[in-house]
Amino acid sequence: MGGDRSDEFIVSQITSGQKDLFRLLVRRYSRPVYGMGMSFFRNAEDASDFAQEVFLKAYRGLPRFEGRSRFSTWLYKIAYNTAINGVSRRAEFRMDFRSLAEADRMPQASEPVDGDTPERQAIRGAAREAVLASLRELPERYRVCVDLSFFYDCSYHEIEAITGFPVNTVKSHVFRAKKLLREKLRGIKGE
Q1: Which CATH class, in words, describes the domain spanning 97-191?
Q2: With contact defined as beta carbons under 8 Å apart, do 40 and 50 qualify?
Q3: Which residue of 5, 57, 61, 170 is most buried, as measured by CB atoms within 10 A?
Q4: CB atoms inside a 10 Å sphere around CB 90
């Protein structure tokens, strides 16, 4: 795959004429972009169409990528804006972002882990439910901040660049999610 090559190096090669290298970026980011599509549209066909649209926009926009942010931040901003616009164009519009955790991408309690005991499996299941409950308690439109932080490994400033939410808002919602999670996990541990 050429995983040792940085995104920025690949972008520079693409903009210098090696257009076929774009496949490396698609391969590298297809899962997170598709995951964002599932979070917003909740079905595989729409998520697939969404991912194709995002990569097409990114490919066409590459000459405008200035490298002031990481390529992933730039790509996720395109994806986020495409999703928001796609959702708002639908007649049944209702902002109802579903976290990657809610979309069953977190380890299931039933998935065995080396050295697992029934007790550990039960604790893991309860912890998973606590995470989901914490995410559900957040205002829906800010769940994306938590997802970008936890699952996409974005910094607060990157989340601000992607969503347009002020960095202090991003921080407060991520902090609130962590606090809710800590409280719920403390309750599980106490049981």
Answers
A1: mainly alpha
A2: yes
A3: 170
A4: 10
Mean pLDDT of the chain: 80
> Tens digit of pLDDT for each residue in 38-71?
988 888 999 999 999 999 999 999 999 988 889 9
Q: Are 81 and 161 in contact (CB under 8 A)?
A: no
Which residues contact residue 59 at a Cβ distance below 8 angstroms, ignoring those fewer than 6 apart?
22
User: Is pLDDT of 189 > 70?
Assistant: no
Query: CATH code for 1-93?
Result: 1.10.1740.10
In contact, 54 and 82? CB cutoff 8 Å: yes
Distance of alpha carbon 177 from alpha carbon 24, whole angstroms = 34
Tokens linked to 92? 């049944």
Rounded to 5°, the CA angle 84-88-93 comes to: 120
